[in-house]
Design a protein that fits this description.
The structure holds 2 protein chains of 2 kinds. By secondary structure, chain A is an alpha/beta fold. Chain A folds into 2 domains: 1-87 and 163-244, 3-Layer(aba) Sandwich (Rossmann fold), CATH 3.40.50; 95-161, no CATH class. Helix content of chain A is 35%, strand content 26%. Chain A contains 10 helices and 10 strands. Chain A has helices spanning 50-57, 80-86, 103-109, 123-129, 131-134, 146-159, 176-193, 204-210, 228-233, 235-242, and strands spanning 10-20, 25-35, 39-43, 63-70, 73-74, 88-91, 164-168, 196-200, 213-218, 221-227. In chain A, α3 runs parallel beside α6 (146-159) and α4 packs antiparallel against α6. Chain B has one domain (2-218). Chain B contains 11 helices and 2 strands, in the order ααααββααααααα. Chain B has helices at residues 2-32, 39-57, 60-82, 91-113, 139-161, 163-173, 175-180, 185-207, 220-233, 238-259, 264-278; strands spanning 128-131, 134-138. In chain B, strands 1-2 form a two-stranded antiparallel sheet. Classes of the chains: A alpha/beta, B mainly alpha. The interface between A and B is medium-sized, with 27 and 20 residues. Residues 21, 26, 44, 46-52 of chain A line the site of adenosine-5'-diphosphate.
Chain lengths: 244, 292
């Protein structure tokens, strides 16, 4: 097993995490660090435990053992609905657009965690990032295409002004061009604002092209942890776990 | 023609109350996917409290306030203490628990206040004034329209114009996503029950002076009419609940007026069955009611 710890302080630190559903754990002794302003890609086959990892970090699932700290705060005692106050936004697998609400209402939800939400809450910036949404403000979520829903879910998470974005398979069902556009946006945000991203992706090549680091999950354990460019170039690892 | 006008206004003023009560059922349905069969009993309980205060202080309005705030509190308590712990994997569980609540509330009321009817006076005259020689509306009817209208307007503003309203809608539609965005989903559910019960109590206070008076079972018939109204409107739709309430009110008035009072309750049941068979999602299912 290769270990290449990222430089800098870990914004998110996961130590010896064991978690799952009911009695049998899915994740075993997972260690992971995401530094501020870094993009870490979590790779691995279907069922490896990637979604479970994100859900445990954001508190949707309880941890059976191990520690999760964010900016020095132990997250295990933090309720799901308070995560966003700490600066963590989670875009769940399958996107989570509220289909009964309009585009604008979905976006506004992103900054409702503040006691006094700002009047427009910087939503205009989000519309600038995703012009396709600006023309559909009053459309209901279920009227949107898959790509628009993905933009909306990410835009809503960004409206919360997180320091760490947990993204679960943003490219699922999207055209390659749109995927590239979204990943490019993440890279820009990292460079401009210091956003940290924990990115779960099936699309290994694209993910590694923007990530600083890649982590390979296999059957719920960390099988490899490498700088993204090295991981992309490591033929053995690719063959063993990533299938290309 | 005079009779038709009279019945129409009578139906609309009854319908306004059904609308308010149906709105209470819809609020809880949207928030929790439960038909609150205890709504009537809860409203009666707070009406007893309200009229007790009114009797003791001589102020109807103080009693009115007690009844509505009592509804707010009772709704929150029922959600926090009872409904939150019901396993909602089967919709029947919530129904059974609600029916249990009805028995408990009616039993306790019977023990405290006895089984007889107590007077429930109206705050305004129920004598209709004449317009163009036809007696159509009383001051009390106007009060009912104003009160229900205010509830509809306030709820609409809450849900469409405020951050809390948006939080409540999001929490109901997508609890997990809402949690991730920092919405206190449990709190929104409690608030939904509290508001619904307060509206139910208001409807109860409005209907009691037009019926036989206070009795532990006084709201049973109102419940059936309002439930029908809510189903006609599609359970999910506040607009549908209001329209459904007016439809049921008119139906009761016309059938009662032209065919006889004993037939009227049957007409409501027939309407309920016809809607359930023909359009089980309600007449407003296709409208974009959920955003309202
Ligand atoms: N809700 C659930 N209940 C029980 N087991 C689950 C649940 N969700 C996922 N699992 C199991 O956990 C394992 C990891 O799933 P998941 O984290 O979704 O993987 P990935 O996101 O990497 O495809 C799988 O074996 C899956 O069957
Ligand atoms: Mg997954």
């Amino acid at each position: 097993m290769t270990t290449g710890r990222p430089q800098g302080t870990g914004l998110l630190e996961v130590d010896g995490l064991t978690a799952g559903y009911g009695a049998a754990p899915v994740l075993h002794d997972v260690d992971l660090t995401v530094g501020a302003g870094r993009i870490v890609a979590v790779l691995g086959a279907n069922g490896a435990g990637k979604t479970t990892l994100l859900r445990t970090i954001s508190g949707l699932l309880p941890a059976a053992a191990g520690r999760i700290t964010f900016d020095g705060v132990d997250l295990r005692g933090v309720k799901v609905e308070r995560m966003v106050r700490h600066g963590i936004a989670h875009v769940p697998e399958g996107r989570g657009v509220v289909t009964e609400l309009t585009v604008d209402e979905n976006l506004r939800l992103g900054n409702l965690w503040r006691r006094r939400p700002k009047k427009r809450g910087g939503l205009d910036e989000i519309y600038d990032l995703f012009p396709a949404l600006a023309g559909r403000k009053n459309h209901l979520g279920h009227q949107l295409s898959g790509g628009e829903r993905q933009m909306l879910a990410i835009g809503r998470a960004l409206a919360a002004r997180p320091r760490l974005l947990l993204l679960d398979e943003p490219s699922l069902g999207l055209a390659p061009k749109l995927t590239a556009q979204i990943l490019g946006l993440l890279r820009d945000l990292r460079d401009r604002t210091g956003l940290a991203v924990l990115l779960v992706e099936q699309n290994v090549r694209s993910a590694l092209s923007i990530a600083d680091e890649g982590v390979v999950l296999n059957l719920g354990r960390i099988a490899a942890r490498e700088r993204a460019d090295k991981l992309a170039g490591d033929a053995d690892l690719r063959h063993a776990y990533l299938g290309f | 023609m005079d009779r038709f006008l009279y019945l129409t206004f009578d139906g609309l003023s009854r319908g306004a109350v059904y609308a308010a009560f149906a709105l209470a059922l819809v609020l809880i349905w949207r928030a929790a996917r439960i038909v609150n069969f205890a709504q009537g009993a809860m409203a009666v309980a707070t009406a007893y409290a309200g009229y007790s205060v009114a009797d003791a202080t001589g102020s109807y309005w103080l009693g009115f306030l007690v009844a509505v705030t009592g509804g707010l509190v009772l709704g929150a308590v029922v959600e926090r203490v009872v409904m939150r712990f019901v396993d909602h994997s089967s919709p029947l569980n919530g129904v059974v628990v609600a029916l249990g609540l009805v028995l408990i509330i009616q039993g306790v009321l019977g023990m405290i206040y006895g089984d007889g009817y107590r007077p429930a006076p109206a705050p305004f005259s129920r004598d209709a004034f004449e317009i163009g020689g036809i007696a159509i509306l009383s001051r009390y009817d106007l009060f009912v329209f104003a009160a229900v209208g205010a509830v509809v307007v306030l709820l609409t503003l809450l849900f469409t114009r405020t951050a809390t309203g948006l939080r409540m809608r999001a929490a109901a539609f997508a609890p997990d996503v809402s949690r991730l965005l920092g919405v206190p989903v449990g709190g929104m559910l409690t608030l939904g029950w509290a508001l619904a019960a307060a509206v139910g109590s208001l409807a109860g206070m409005l209907v009691l002076p037009t019926e036989l008076g206070l009795h532990p079972n006084a709201m049973d018939l109102l419940f059936v009419s309002a439930f029908t109204a809510a189903v006609v409107g599609g359970l999910d739709s506040p607009v549908g609940a209001v329209v459904g309430g007016l439809v049921v009110g008119l139906l009761l008035a016309y059938v009662g007026g032209y065919l006889g009072a004993t037939v009227a309750p049957m007409a409501v049941l027939v309407l309920l069955v016809v809607v359930l068979l023909g359009r089980p999602d309600g007449l407003f299912a296709r409208a974009k009611a959920r955003t309202a």
